[in-house]
Amino acid sequence: xxxxxxxxxxxxxxxxxxxxxxxxxxxxxxxxxxxxxxxxxxxxxxxxxxxxxxxxxxxxxxxxxxxxxxxxxxxxxxxxxxxxxxxxxxxxxxxxxxxxxxxxxxxxxxxxxxxxxxxxxxxxxxxxxxxxxxxxxxxxxxxxxxxxxxxxxxxxxxxxxxxxxxxxxxxxxxxxxxxxxxxxxxxxxxxxxxxxxxxxxxxxxxxxxxxxxxxxxxxxxxxxxxxxxxxxxxxxxxxxxxxxxx
Length: 246
Known about the structure:
By secondary structure, the protein is of the alpha+beta class. 15% of the residues lie in helices and 61% in strands. A hairpin with a 4-residue loop joins strand 5 (118-141) and strand 6. The longest helix has 20 residues, at 2-21. The chain starts with a helix and ends with a strand.
């Protein structure tokens, strides 16, 4: 999706700017800036009531995401925030006769143009991602070798659903293309455990594993109904980050 690609580029630029701003490295650190990526593995989250709308539903829940964190450090404690991309799901497949999204399109064609239309071809794509802005607490232990972080905050959700149905009544062929954009807000909380591998004075490689939970309400979750559904999803996200202390 173009929107997802643009957001990834924007977050990467913000992360680069944070890295360039981290100058004046010294042993008595007061600030920590970390940028990196993680392999996000999410639980299946499509509500059962929506699965029957599509045919051949095979959503993808594993993605590579990027983000950054900033902390003010006092002793072993750190207080700060994070911004990043959390991809939730993506599905793309052919639609089949009998699926609700196809039957709905054929009913509209028969009402508008008459005749008895039959499906010739159909496809759909569905994608959803989140950008959480989290307040975070960090604690270093075992002589700064290990760290644990906890965060919580709002998450902006974006994505789109598009469906294309082509049908014929024997004499004429008709196509219907429908598009729905997601623009939602949710809540995310996470817990991270990691290790610092010192590379140089003020420069560490962080190896971490993060668990996260997302809660949101999706309005108009598909092209057929306007009701909202509750979207809950768990994430496990191992990753690497470069951390600068200054």
